[in-house]
């Protein structure tokens, strides 16, 4: 598959309203602005690289590079940019709500569990990576000896996400991840 056929595939995928909406939300992020002489690839192509790389079980960077006709390092670059933009976008999309909503959540959780002033439930999970990242790869190795990243999510009483942290190496403790989160 050549870059031209990838561009055609990305254009076909961009017919999907959800993909278009996500591209529109992400393209305003300054991480997609070129800082050098060479222009960056459009956001739709970077997102088209990110989605199969992270969304396909067993996919690795070499497969993505081969299928898309781009360099191996470019896959990491595109994915890094998209993850960064998604994390920043998440701060606007995933919110705690206003004071009235927080009081409502706290009352509901108190009635259900007896825990006062609780405004959410937190859980952490690991996402198994198919290969160890080239940069600081050993920091991603978990106690079960495979590379993984941490995802930490908070939900309210209605199972709506109110906080998300992702992309931290497994070697980072839960407490550190919590302290460094946007919450």
Judged by helices, strands and strand pairing, the structural class is alpha+beta
Percent strand:
5-15%
Number of DSSP E strands:
3
Q: Please state the CA-atom Rg, rounded to the nearest Å.
A: 19 Å
Low-confidence stretches: 1-15
First-last Cα distance:
43 Å
Strand order of the largest sheet: 1-2-3
Number of helices: 7
Task: Tell me the overall shape.
Answer: globular
Tell me about the biggest sheet? 3 strands, antiparallel
As a percent range, the share of helical residues equals 40-55%
Order of helices and strands: HHHHHHEEEH
Please tell me the overall pLDDT. 77
Describe this entry's structure for a reader.
The chain is of the alpha+beta class. It is built from seven helices and three strands, in the order H-H-H-H-H-H-E-E-E-H. It has helices spanning 3-13, 17-26, 43-55, 61-68, 72-93, 99-113, 174-180, and strands spanning 121-128, 148-155, 161-169. The chain has a three-stranded antiparallel beta sheet with strand order 1-2-3. The protein starts with a helix and ends with a helix.
């Amino acid at each position: 598959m050549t870059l031209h056929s990838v561009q055609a595939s990305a254009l076909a995928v961009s017919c999907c309203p959800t993909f278009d909406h996500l591209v529109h939300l992400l393209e305003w992020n300054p991480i997609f602005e070129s800082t050098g002489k060479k222009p960056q690839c459009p956001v739709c192509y970077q997102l088209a690289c990110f989605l199969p790389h992270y969304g396909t079980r067993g996919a690795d960077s070499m497969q993505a590079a081969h299928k898309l006709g781009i360099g191996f390092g470019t896959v990491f670059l595109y994915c890094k940019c998209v993850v960064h933009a998604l994390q920043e976008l998440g701060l606007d999309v995933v919110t705690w709500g206003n004071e009235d909503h927080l009081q409502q959540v706290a009352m509901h959780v108190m009635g259900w569990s007896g825990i006062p002033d609780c405004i959410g439930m937190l859980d952490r999970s690991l996402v198994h990576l198919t290969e160890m990242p080239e940069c600081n790869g050993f920091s991603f190795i978990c106690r079960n000896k495979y590379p993984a990243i941490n995802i930490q999510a908070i939900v309210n009483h209605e199972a709506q996400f109110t906080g998300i942290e992702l992309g931290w190496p497994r070697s980072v403790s839960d407490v550190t991840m919590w302290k460094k989160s946007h919450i």
